[in-house]
Automatic annotation (TrEMBL), chain A:
Pfam families given in the database record: SpoVR (PF04293), SpoVR_C (PF24755)
Domain SpoVR-like C-terminal: 440-492
Name under which the protein is recorded: SpoVR family protein
Lineage: Bacteria, Pseudomonadati, Pseudomonadota, Betaproteobacteria, Burkholderiales
Cross-referenced NCBIfam families: PRK11767.1
Organism in which the protein naturally occurs: Duganella dendranthematis
Residue ranges of domain SpoVR protein-like N-terminal in the record: 19-437
UniProt superkingdom: Bacteria
InterPro entries assigned to the protein according to its UniProt record, in alphabetical order: Spore_V_R, SpoVR-like_C, SpoVR_N, Ycgb-like
UniProtKB/TrEMBL annotation, chain B:
Pfam families: DUF444
Family: Belongs to the UPF0229 family.
The protein's name: UPF0229 protein HH213_04520
Annotated source species: Duganella dendranthematis
InterPro entries: UPF0229 (IPR006698), vWFA_dom_sf (IPR036465)
Amino acid sequence: MNDMTAKPRHPNALPEQSEWTFELIEQIHQEIRRVAEGFGLDTYPNQLEIITAEQMMDAYTSVGMPVSYNHWSFGKHFLSTEKGYKRGQMGLAYEIVINSNPCIAYLMEENSLTMQSLVIAHAAYGHNSFFKGNYLFRTWTDAEAIVDYMVFAKNYIAECEQRHGIDAVETLLDSCHAIQNYGVDRYKRPAKLSLMEERARQKEREAYVQSQLNDLWRTLPRREEEETAKAAKRFPVEPEENLLYFIEKYAPLLEPWQREMVRIVRKISQYFYPQRQTQVMNEGWATFWHYTILNQLYDESVIGDGFMMEFLKSHTNVVYQPPVNSPHYSGINPYALGFAMMTDIRRICENPTDEDREWFPDIAGSDWQKTLDFAMRNFKDESFIAQYLSPKLIREFHFFAVLDDDNNEKLNVSAIHDDSGYRYVRQQLAEQYNLGNREPNIQVWSVNTQDDRALTLRHTQFQRRPLNQQAGEVLKHVARLWGFDVHLETVAPNGEVISTLEVRREKRSRIP
Amino acid sequence: MTYLIDRRLQGKNKSAVNRERFLRRYKSQIKDAVGRAIKGRSITDVENGEKVSIPVKDVSEPSFGHAHGGVWEVVNPGNQEYLKGDQINRPKGGAGSGRGKAGNSDQMTEDDFIFELSREEFMNYFFEDLELPHMVKTQLTASTDFKNQRAGYNMSGTPSNIHVLRSLRGALGRRIAVGGGSRKRVAEAERELEQLLLDGVPLLDPRVVELKKLIHHLHTRLLAIPFIDPFDLRYTNRIKVPKPMTQAVMFCIMDVSGSMDETRKDTAKRFFILLYLFLKRVYDKIEVVFIRHHTAAAEVDEEEFFHSRESGGTVVSSALHLLDKIIDERYGGGSYNAYVAQASDGDNWDNDSVLCRQLLVNTIMPKVQYYTYVEITDGPPQNLWEQYSQVPDHHQHFAMQKIVTPADIYPVFRELFKKQPK
């Protein structure tokens, strides 16, 4: 060869072929791991599983877990995914990764060797290190126990189906699912329990909760207490944001097994809560790392040109952000925004401009790996955007904010990507990722312990936004769980009740 | 530490249970869809899967969310023209859809939820509507005929099956084989004796005496070889093979007089479909002939059979004449097995019913494998019923039943097609 620029081939260079084999996957995985460790990515051990497209659909539609209990809604998602996949309308999500220890990543058998490498770098090193490092996941999820817990839940619910019938279980799950987003603690940190402890505690719980209930719902007031009852203590003393928790603890008529099922849905919901808050960061981080790792492997000549071309094509598709006026627009692509921000932070560290020094004095010129690692660990989408979205990116994305106030006849462009708008746009975009704003603020307000046992929920209005039309349906589910009348009051910021929805239980009977 | 695990062979179809749960939950909607599908489908095409659509409202899982209204401030990418402070008209669609589409999910119009039933699932729903007990349909066995077929020869059998030619040929072979050596030596000995006698050796020479003894001995041995031995016997071998019933023709005869309304036609259609599916299990090829009649009969295609609105009085015999004609012209000669299913509400001209009976008994029944008559009515039996009731006295392969609701179809069908004592 007289081409002097030709790089020496790496001893572990991959052959230029698109078919994967187990040996080749092992080989590329070794290389990816070497590079990832070189960049200081800290991960759980990896478990790579080769699966079929159908299994991928299974995993995809049962809340992305390797095991889950049975429910019709998972079947519904399966049917619609299958339809889309068979018609070729959508490619399957090619990466599903489970926040567990070991971290499970799925490799679909149809994928080419390049795609397998992309998935390994993306899921097994990107997402995996995010799960292990990010404070929300560290606080709220227990990677050691989740698969065991899902097995416990599946078995428990299957047992309930046998004992109480599929219909009874299904209706209860329907109701729990309807308010599963209101089954999370935002502030209380759960204790980590092993499966054994979980089982042991489940028995205690049954006994304990029932005894507490008797106290709360005492029907024969003792005489000497009547005086104090006049003072009518509010119950609950403070509003409770976790509806499922409140129902699990205090719903008067639930059977012990029903409480346990409420708890299962709540636990799983809680487990996924960090994922809902870190979509941009998590995908951005994983995408940044698959991009960085595979480029490094290319530079080392472990992977060749053909491999790189195929990889870049997929990568480019993933991070494409259509503009708002495009027919393909469906909101901000978390992969695009997250990847751009991660890349941008590295750029600010390595090649800061004057603008960057002014906006990010702390990180401009600093060690990019440390800076990025810090960002990954200590933020969620909302705070991450508020902290790191640079004017340069706002310009690149052509971000602009539009104010839609139904008191005004027209929409108003409130800020664009110019000097006066950067901070405003950044703040608005961060707000957009605040789950507290995105979901209506609904809390348990009070329970009528003296009379009809009615439950009152309060919706504290945000920016005068009304509840959607499904609210009435959801409320029926709440009433089914509660067993008695349920009221939903919508309250303006000044405390004035604006409107009320209510569901009356005609027959006060045990569910269903 | 890494694990690479091949999961492809395990845990397939994990969602099957969830899929089944889904179907179970929406059973009534799916049954409706299957019912519609049957109406819209041809009889021969009933065995495929079906697309089912359920209104999205029914399958939605409700959750709390914001509707549009109040104040929304949304950041979007891709600004090309706007400056701060620009006023934009609200997009069409009233106050409902702002440019920022966040939150107003329940105002988006969505298409129905559409998915496909597999062939198996479709058939389950189809049979379920017929109140088919769960697995019974697989037990509907065909009354297969066997025919005896020669299959070479056997070493054992009954005397009547002895194949003479084959047995004798075997015996001849055996005789040649067994006697071969002796015969050769006889020939040699005789040649030698002749040579000795020609050479003038005296008759009492010990060599001549020796040879004569040997020849005699060998002749005796050759004569002792049996002409036929039990070992030689060959019997004709016959085996039973299923009779290849390759073709059948199914006649659907329907009364389309005014009293046969949509519901009754639908019931009839289900009956015909069931008959078709049944025959399909026995025959590779089935042809379907549709005959409709009021005062006059006509051969029509399926579309017209079920959907034409032409109507009039009733002369059932017109259809029977036509049936007979078609059998003779196109399906005669015994190469087809003919089945007839007739559906009617039973109302016929009085004197015509007698004619029908005569036609059936004398002309048609000898030409067909099976003839079923279903009367779709909730009223008392009509004169046609009375006359048809006499047919079984002459021909066993005639059956008739009454159907009131679709749920009766399957039991009636079972009754009609139960195995006949031979």
